[in-house]
Amino acid sequence: MFDFYFEIPLVIRLFLQGLAVIMVIFPIAGACSMAERKVAAWIQDRPGPNRAVVPWVAWIPFLGTFLQRLGIFHVMADGGKMLFKEDSLPGHVNKFYFVLAPIVAMIPALTTVVVVPFGAYLDAAGKIIPVGLAPLDVGILAVFAVSSLGVYSMILAGWASNSKYPFLGSVRASAQLISYELSMALSVLPVFLWVNAPGMEATMGFGRVVEFQSQPGFLGGMWFGFLMPLSAFIFFVALFAETNRQPFDTVESESDLVGSFHTEYGAFKWGLFFVAEYSHMIVGSGVFMLLFGGGWNPLPWVPLADLVGWLAQITPLASHPLFVGVLSISIFLGKVLAMIFLFMWVRWTLPRFRYDQVMKIGWQRLLPLSIANLLFYAIAIAFIQK
Amino acid sequence: MAVITVERKPLTFLERTYLPQIAGGLKTTLKHLVAPKKTLEYPEQRPAIPTGYRGVPTLVMDPNGREKCVSCQLCEFVCPPKAIRITPGEIPADQPDRAHVEKGPKAFDIDMLRCIYCGLCQEVCPEEAIFLQNQFSMSGYSREEMVNHKDRLYELGGTLPDAHFKWDKKKAAEEHGNAH
Fold first, then answer.
1. Which of A229, A238, B2, B114 could make an SS bond with A180 (beta carbons 3.0 to 4.6 A apart)?
2. CB of B25 within 8 Å of any CB in chain A?
3. What is the pLDDT of residues A72-119, one digit of tens each?
């Protein structure tokens, strides 16, 4: 049925796949900025943006008003404004690096998606095959390596802006991202110690991690979030710091740094920084869900294969690879969006940590905790998998 | 005054981790997330105007449809930002229903770019002819548009109930032969 697709040359096919993923990530990142405004409003007892509407949608009796109240069209209004605004280039900036910074922000943000599988299907033998752009064996290493390049965009932006607050912001950004990267990397090691059991082919990819979370039995079906709560917690906290989200928002703290590294930016260049931030959040949430939240498994102890088996009893169409793929991708996307909501919920709840507190939490609390956690699980796994 | 020394308790381990506090905060914000919204959506929903509200100053007519203002110019003199400009005039002889009214303004302008909504004009008016009523938003595209002329002022003001019927009493007194 889809044979014509596999007859297209591989390069074009990969290009189309990559484009498809970007076409999903980019609007989601845009919609996230809208959701952010909406969640902020709801938490503050306001209805939030609810005015913009396209006339022919407003004519639809019930749905039109609902969509307008939901503020769907403000995404377009915001995006359109950002595109058509005057793209100012201040006189005192280092022009080349100033323009380069938002581009450098976008590249790692969209590159990390490549190694993250976002769904799965069952092949003829009933084996789960992950769906992703390039499900490489280096997986988590590639995510860490590429996503940490994102800090260069902030350093570049802050330095090229050639003014005080952006510079301070970029200094903070580099210090913060380096501090939390350590505990983040150490916190995921137990997971990979566990999935690389003796006698198995070594991998740092995500496919095996999810496979381990969808085994039968009480311990097998348990998500790693329950099995290694401390790892999950450290990773979660470090994720907030890495994506510069509240309460680790010191990089952007508008009260003491105006707008930090993007103070001098406007229009679409400014917008790119935010799309990059939200893309980081989406990929980070995706990685968290793969490692600790069961990936594309609908519920703890209910693997995807079981769900498909039940659905197949109702209709044989359910075991079609296309249906399974769409189902698993929507489950995974749903989990990621739930994480994004959590990000926003936390943002509008907690005040920002002071910069020295951020450093203290990173180096004196999370790092020793993650080392202790790693030692504990290393010893425990050595005994269990002996 | 006795000084009571309150012992400061050291934080418990859980308090030092800060996590129960975070959970409590998240619970509070979640409550607000689903709570009914408190916003008044302005152009569609209007706020309730309390009595005694000082909105845009207007001129009012008496229940007989006559203008109450006699152009005494007290409001013009009292107006702190000099927003009011009155040109006094006589009552035309061909209007029998206004025959007993002493005078009337030929022109009455209030510059709303100057007006500070202090309400002194209303306070000082001996004829109860000028009132700061409920309208609270004034806008226009030019300076000229922001000056309320006489016809506009009466249009905004309308008719208010009158307790005195001064001119009716004056007319009745004149008909009985004792002016004042």
1. A238
2. yes
3. 888 888 888 888 888 888 888 888 888 888 888 888 888 888 888 887
CB within 8 Å: A42 and B26: no
Instruction: Locate the domains of chain B by residue range.
Output: 57-173
Amino acid at the residue B142: S
Q: What is the DSSP letter of A120?
A: E
Which amino acid is present at B134? N
Delimit the domains of chain A by residue range.
92-384
Give the ipTM: 0.79
Residue B68, phi then psi, degrees to nearest 5: -85, -30
Contacts of A40 in chain B (CB under 8 A): none
Q: Round to whole Å and give the CA distance between A283 and A285.
A: 5
A40, A345 Cβ separation under 8 angstroms = no
Q: Which of B28, B34, B39 to mutate to test the interface with A (most CBs of A within 10 A)?
A: B39
- In this predicted model, what pLDDT tens digit does every residue of A209-221 receive, in sequence order? 887 787 777 777 7
CB contact under 8 A, B39 and A47: yes
Contacts of A193 (CB under 8 A, 6+ apart): A377, A378, A381
Bridge partners of A365, per DSSP, are none
Cross-chain residue pair B38–A46, CB shorter than 8 Å: yes
* Chain B closest-CA separation from residue A47 CA (Å): 6
- Give me the average pLDDT of each 10-residue run along chain B (180 residues): 90 86 91 89 88 91 85 92 91 78 87 92 90 89 92 88 80 75
| Number of neighbours of residue A326 by Cβ within 10 angstroms | 14
- Tell me which of B29, B38, B41 to substitute to probe the interface with A (most A C-beta atoms closer than 10 Å): B29
Under CATH, what is the fold of the domain B57-173? Alpha-Beta Plaits (3.30.70)
CB pairs under 8 A between A and B: 35
What's the rounded Cα separation, in Å, for the pair A191 and A370?
13
Q: Which chain A residues have a beta carbon less than 8 Å from that of B37?
A: 42, 45-47
Is B29 in contact with A345 (Cβ distance < 8 A)? yes
Helix (H, G, I), strand (E, B) or coil at A371: helix
Q: pLDDT averaged over chain A?
A: 83
B2: contact with A, CB 8 A cutoff: no
The verdict on a CB contact (< 8 Å) between A43 and B39 is no
Q: How many angstroms separate the Cα of A138 from the Cα of each of A84, A203, A332, B142?
A: 41, 7, 21, 67
Residues of chain A with pLDDT under 50: none
Sign of CA dihedral B53, B55, B57, B58: negative
Any CB–CB contact under 8 A between B33 and chain A?
yes
Residues 6+ apart with CB under 8 A from B16: none
How far is B31 from A4, CA to CA, in rounded Å?
Answer: 53
Residue B31 touches chain A, beta carbons under 8 Å: no
